[in-house]
Amino acid sequence: MLEESECESDFLLTDDFNALYVDVRDRYFSRNAEYWPVFAEPGMAHIIAGRQEGLEDDDRLKAYPNGEKLYSRIRQECTVPQAPTIPCPENKDEMLLFAGTLCKNWENPASVENVITMPCDPAIYGSMIGTLSNPNLVYKEYCGMAEDLERYVVRQMATLAGYNPAQATGIFTQGGTFCNLYGYLLGIRKSMPEARSYGMGGTQDYRFINSKGGHYSNTTNLSLLGVNLKDKTIRIKVTKNNKIDVKDFELQLESCFRLKSSVPCIMLTMGTTDTFGVDEVKPVYEIRERLCEQYGIEVLPHIHVDAAIGWSMLFFLTYNFSTNPLGINLVTLHGLERNVELFRQIRYADSFTIDFQKWGYVPYTSSLVMIKNKNDLKALENDPENFSYFEDDMQGQTHLQSTIECSRGGSGLFGAYAALKYMGIEGYQTILAHCLQNANYFRHRLHEFEGVKVLAYDNQGPSVAFRIYNPAVVQSPKDEFKFEYEYQHCEEYQSRLQRNSLWHRDIFLRRGKVGLYTNWVEFICHTSHDEKDRHCYIPGEKAVFMNPRTTFEDIDAYLACLIV
Ligand SMILES: *Cc1c(COP(=O)(O)O)cnc(C)c1O
User: Fold this and answer.
1) Is 479 buried (19+), middle (13-18) or exposed (0-12) by CB count in 10 A?
2) Distance CA 298, CA 296 (A)
3) Centroid of ligand 1 to alpha carbon of 1 (angstroms)
4) What's the 420 CA to ligand 1 centre distance in angstroms?
5) How many other CB atoms are there within 10 angstroms of residue 23's CB atom?
6) Which residues of the chain have pLDDT under 70?
7) Around 57, how many Cα atoms within 13 Å sit in the side-chain half-sphere?
8) Sheet holding 208-211, edge to edge
9) Residue 3's pLDDT is what?
10) Would you state the pLDDT for residue 1?
């Protein structure tokens, strides 16, 4: 079932691309001690060898020398050793290596469970340098040159995103959740500066706006900030492709302004976790400008974009789509081109979230909140009295007074710097295109199965979510999904939805883990809303193609057992 304009070969690998991909994989994702001598250290080499055996997760413990005994020790021992252990190369600690080897193996080509990846070799090397030098980014005196390295990477990302690197700023922080927290906080401090001392219950009425397609950190952050989620948060509807409904957004924003309610922050998402819906920032920006002008709103709502996964598409903003130098296959090339049109709009955001630890292949934790206008950080400054144990004349040079954290580690920053440096834009383009080619191949092959409905088929992200229906009772998966999508508040609807979900869930469990370790998600999408705004979640199966080592062969092995 190809779209009219697509043909089979549009999904396959070109020879040119494959040669580039193999180079990138071998140089940057293979733990090769010839390129990266740190991997020759005996303990590291032990862990790398153990993880490269490619055993199924469940078999790894059994295969590990002395595994059962170590497993029992790790669960039972409870004392610190009395005597020191003398360090020497032969005296590797068993427990350390056991735990390191048996952490979840993201290097296994079958690992596609979620938005999690093996880090690249240069980022591991970079992070280790950062660990060795141990800067504390809280303050110049405690981090030295790392502060300048942070500014350097921030300028690089500003340039990629289309921000003015002289005007932008950014903060490395612990995870995308914290980046989004900064987004909300920037909005609060700009719109309601009195909240710093008096909290959110002041005299001014307010509403936060985000989308129903947003990540759960939207909710955890607002709740953490003391926001009444039910009455003070407006979650905008999403379209079928999981993008924010711009019309509904406009209606809601205008209602807020009409009722004299301030809107500290509008949180958009570029690249939703399960279906890669990409919100359009430019129309939201234009509506904000127009309505603020019309209603005389002085402090504009802060627009933060959660691009925790999506930011990686920024590497393609300068790609030459007409000459296609990497030889990316046609379907993926066109998909990327569509993404690029959307991601160009990120420059309209006042701030956005970057997770290097996701589709940037940097070890945990490595996230960066980017801020278009460095003056915005002034709004976050706390009372200088709070910082009396830092020297006054050093304080002005850092973000010390504006950060949520006190100590900030540097390993994520060093890892990000090294990944960018060694892989360069082209190395990233190659590995990202590889992932999307896998995702497109998977979507296309799934689409050919009787009974399978692929969600948001046109969204060009690494995640592929789908539902499998029983062909004996469901004639057209497309129509069945359409039925499920249109929410009805009745018993018949609920039981049909449940019947379908249970059938798929049963297949998922019976299939076990073959080829790809997909996972089950309780909601891969929302239904539409009825006239009383009621709706529900639809569950399904998901694979996320961020793994540089997954190939078409792994996908074929999985598909051969899809319906058992
Ligand atoms: C993963 C994710 C987050 C949270 O990021 P962490 O780094 O896990 O804290 C936020 N938003 C989106 C869209 C994500 O995919």
Assistant:
1) exposed
2) 6
3) 34
4) 21
5) 12
6) 1-5, 387-398
7) 15
8) 169-173, 367-371, 351-355, 302-306, 265-269, 208-211, 233-236
9) 55
10) 45
User: Which parts of 175-329 fold into alpha helices (H)?
Assistant: 176-191, 195-198, 217-224, 229-232, 246-258, 281-295
Place of tokens 């509403």: 207
For ligand 1, atom 5, which residue shows the shortest CA distance? 176
Nearest by Cα to 362 from 563, 123, 167: 123
**C-beta of 371 in contact with ligand 1 (< 6 A):** no
Q: Answer whether the bond into residue 430 is a cis peptide, omega within 30°.
A: no
Decide whether any atom of ligand 1 lies within 6 Å of the 269 Cβ: yes
Pocket flag, ligand 1, residue 177 (CB < 6 Å) = yes
- The whole-angstrom separation of Cα 21 and Cα 155 is 28
Question: DSSP string spanning 485-506?
Answer: HS---SHHHHHHHHHHHHHHHH
Q: Are 466 and 538 a contacting pair, CB within 8 Å?
A: no
First to last CA, the chain: 22
Instruction: Indicate whether residue 215 lines ligand 1 (CB < 6 A).
Output: yes
- Where exactly are the structural domains of the chain? 38-107, 118-175+308-430, 193-304, 448-559
CATH number given to 193-304: 3.40.640.10
Centre a 10 Å sphere on the Cβ of residue 440 and count the other Cβ atoms it contains. 23
List, in sequence order, every residue forming a beta bridge with 351; answer none if it has no partner.
304, 371
402 lines ligand 1 (CB under 6 A): no
Element (H, E) at 235: strand 233-236
| Per-residue tokens: 342 | 């959307």
Residue owning tokens 């920053």 = 413
Helix (H) or strand (E) holding 427: helix 411-447
Q: Do domains 118-175+308-430 and 193-304 have the same CATH topology?
A: yes
- The structural architecture, per CATH, of the domain 118-175+308-430 is 3-Layer(aba) Sandwich (3.40)
Ligand 1 center from residue 364 Cα (angstroms): 12
Query: Which atom belonging to ligand 1 lies closest to the Cα atom of 178?
Result: 9
User: Which tokens in the block code for residue 451?
Assistant: 């009974």
Q: Which atom of ligand 1 is nearest to the CA of 357?
A: 7
Between the CA of 177 and the centroid of ligand 1 the distance, in Å, is 6
Q: In what order do the strands lie in the sheet with 519-526?
A: 452-454, 463-468, 537-544, 519-526
367 lines ligand 1 (CB under 6 A): yes
Phi/psi of residue 522, each to 5°? Answer: -70, -25
Distance CA 543, CA 110 (A): 10
Residue 541: predicted pLDDT: 96
Nearest to 310 by CA among 264, 274, 348, 259: 274
Number of H helices, E strands in the chain: 20, 11
Four-point Cα dihedral 369, 373, 376, 377, nearest 10: 50
Token couple for 383? 């009372």
d(CA 1, CA 309) in angstroms, rounded, equals 30
pLDDT for the residue numbered 524: 85
- What is the distance between the alpha carbons of residues 208 and 228, in angstroms, rounded to a whole number? 10
